[in-house]
Amino acid sequence: MKFSRIHSLQGSLEIPGDKSISHRSVMFGALAKGTTEISHFLKGADCLSTISCFRSMGIGIEEKDGKILVHGNGLRGLKRPDKVLDCGNSGTTVRLISGILAGQDFDVTLTGDSSIQKRPMKRIVEPLSLMGAQIESVRGNGCAPLSIHGAPLKGISYSTPVASAQVKSAILLAGLYADGETRVTEPAPSRDHTERMLSAFGADVSSQGTTAVIRPAKELYGQSIQVPGDISSAAFFLAAGLLIPGSQILLKNVGVNPTRDGVIRVFERMGGKIETVRTDLRGGEPAADLLVTSGSLHGTVIEGDIIPTLIDELPVIAAAACFAEGETVIRDAGELKVKESNRIEAMVTNLQAMGADVTETEDGMIIRGGRPLHGAVIQSRNDHRIAMTFAVAALMADGETDIPQWDCVDISYPAFLSDLRSLAGR
Ligand code: S3P
């Protein structure tokens, strides 16, 4: 796919549904009694992988009048799939489903694409094993495929070495089936969609500081869920709207959960004009319309507890920092190395190919902004967020940028190109 400079973005955009919340609405709906009705569900490839896994376990899932209906079978209603569960490219699917499957009374194997088979699973295998789960990496390399032999579970108190909502959620979901209370403490708060939504489904879950606590559930109950727009998808247009001269865009119904909104806080700190013009509650999650007006940005330091709140947005923030005055330092972001690709290496290499002044560090990067970027051939590494980040960078660069591995954007934002075209007036 080829991109070149554009002159201003105008208009408004309904941001597609949040990926994390869409996954959870299907998973919890499958475990609930009754039907869960999901509107604004993200039909990206990752969430479709989740749907396909639950269909393989006997859950009826259909689309009706633009909504997804999940006909839950109750907490103990999943059936043994007659094949290996394919989680595609989705870390959320593998890790959260592992937590659910650890406490069932059947055996199952989970796998995914070549990227998933390289991502670390020890982080869930370890705590789930402490709960009594029989789960192992089939090749003994700490990655998927994972084989799970369902077993009785006991509650634990666990401190995670990394702030990860996927790890926290896997443990909490196993805790639904455990014989006592389960507590997970993180070094910094990660996204809390599981806690919010499980509680709406009737689970006994609460948070105290950086500790989430769950007690075993008797039953969950189907809900009607309106998924807010994905702030991680909105981030591409936040960056483009702030940086392309003469732009003003309205991004509608963006989820602004405080455990996810670090990108807004950082862009504001860099001098970006982002006005909240309307707020709302969608499915127990705060949402807002954001009016973005272009202007100049300056560098900043991004480190510490804010990192988990913008972990998926760091690629596009790094690209935006190339167009900001002065230096931007990103630290404490070693987790970027174990995402769909090594995002530190992918960002630094591709930004350098476009002429940026950027240095890779152990846990982040240093960007000296203000140097004009030029077009290049971008290696997306089949990572959706890397592909879209460089589409945005290309809109402000001289010459043409080619992103040959482009189809991966279907993972989280199938409508990215048409949304970009509508704001560009094409
Ligand atoms: C997600 C959590 C984050 C994020 C991922 C989705 C989730 O991963 O990067 O895209 O849905 O819980 P970690 O929890 O591993 O940081």
Helix/strand layout:
Blueprint: E1 2-3, E2 10-14, H1 19-31, E3 33-39, H2 45-56, E4 60-64, E5 67-73, E6 85-86, H3 91-101, E7 107-111, H4 122-130, E8 134-137, E9 146-149, E10 157-159, H5 165-175, E11 182-185, H6 193-200, E12 204-208, E13 211-215, E14 224-226, H7 231-243, E15 248-255, H8 262-269, E16 273-282, E17 285-293, E18 301-302, H9 314-321, E19 327-330, H10 343-353, E20 357-361, E21 364-368, H11 384-394, E22 401-402, H12 416-424
Parallel strand pairs: 2-15, 3-14, 6-7, 10-11, 18-19
Antiparallel strand pairs: 1-22, 3-5, 4-5, 7-9, 8-9, 11-13, 12-13, 15-17, 16-17, 19-21, 20-21
Helix pairs in contact: 1-2, 1-6, 3-5, 4-5, 7-11, 9-11
The chain binds shikimate-3-phosphate.
Q: What is the CATH topology of the largest domain?
A: UDP-n-acetylglucosamine1-carboxyvinyl-transferase, Chain
What's the CATH H-level homologous superfamily of the largest domain?
Enolpyruvate transferase domain
- Main CATH class of the largest domain: Alpha Beta
* Proportion in β-strands: 15-25%
Number of domains: 2
Estimated helix fraction:
25-40%
- Helix-strand makeup class: alpha+beta
Tally the helices.
12
Characterize the largest beta sheet: strand count, sense, and whether it forms a barrel: 4 strands, mixed
User: Which molecules are bound besides the chains?
Assistant: shikimate-3-phosphate
Distance between the termini: 16 Å
Q: What is the CATH architecture assignment of the largest domain? A: Alpha-beta prism
